[in-house]
Fold:
Amino acid sequence: MDRIRILIVDDAVVVRRMLSTLLAEDPELEVVGTAVNGADALRKIPDLRPHLLILDVDMPEMNGLETLTVLGREHPRLPVIMFSNLTRRGAQTTLEALALGAKDYVTKPESVGSAGEALEQVRAALVPKIKALCRPWEPAPAVLARRSHEPPAARQAPPSAPAPAPAAPVSPAAHASAPPLPSPVLAPMTRRGGIELVVIGCSTGGPNALATLVAALPRGLAVPVVVVQHMPPVFTRMLAERLDALSPLSVREGSDGARIQPGEIWIAPGDFHMTVRRSADGLHLGLNQGAPENSCRPAVDVLLRSAVAACGARVLGVILTGMGHDGLASSMRLREAGGQLLAQDERSSVVWGMPGNVVRAGLADRVLAIEDIGPEIAARVRGEGGRHGC
Structure:
């Protein structure tokens, strides 16, 4: 298998050395060069032919945002991961970079005990993202493997369950390495008075996907929306502010005990799991710093699982672009409870990991391009689902 060719673009020599050192330790990766700013990188790309860029924001002569603008014209298919500071300004600039075409970001380490810890922190965040963007196939997680031991009859959905949407095409290479997925056991779909809550989960590519989705939701949506986007603190607050400016609905970062009402969108804050619970006066949010799930906090599985416990079949789940399989286990629980599930299609996803896993498992009611998901949510809330996409 050919190694993934990486060009590191950063004006700080210590950062270039650090990234070169940690990436060289992985046999699937190759650092083919470094550049001190965007102009230097653009001159080197034709000769180095990288598969991916790691790009700093603040650089002399041509900064990261200026570089992304040129890359969008000259090398639109070249994926870029931003290397960002964990600050309010860093979060704002990162969101601007994602809007300009960067695929993902990694935050620079701060307040760590040693250089070794800093390297490990960056490696754990960066290497999986490089591989997800350049080799997007992700094998089925163990949560599905146990289904293969059930007799074939037990793995068939009951006749009253809706037929799962067809999966988007997978590349021949993916077919060669992909194990077959068994079909899940689905309970009959018993709608109990329509949808009460929409739960959205996303990761890589999520900020832009959410921007498209929330802008398409109608003013006066009759249910609340809760969202997990894998992001650190500060970034989620900035994301909520940006989405609030784009949506006709109110978008806020979640707070412990907040009562959620129709026409509101709540974003899980970075480093906190967000949950939904039912009280005498309606639905409320909870925040906690329990152990990460799927290496994530906040985790989609935590939020969606709590929503199913609070609302049962009256939940509409939506799994958007993202690497990994966060949201898969709770999507099973949602479908077994009789809830509805939408998934973003492969074409419009940056990484078809999270949505791809629920589609391959046969859990999605519909597989939709991101521009169709907002209208589909609105239609299903009105009880008119099934008009868009596959």
User: Anything to note?
Assistant: The chain has two domains: 4-134, 162-381. Confidence is low (pLDDT under 50) at residues 145-192.
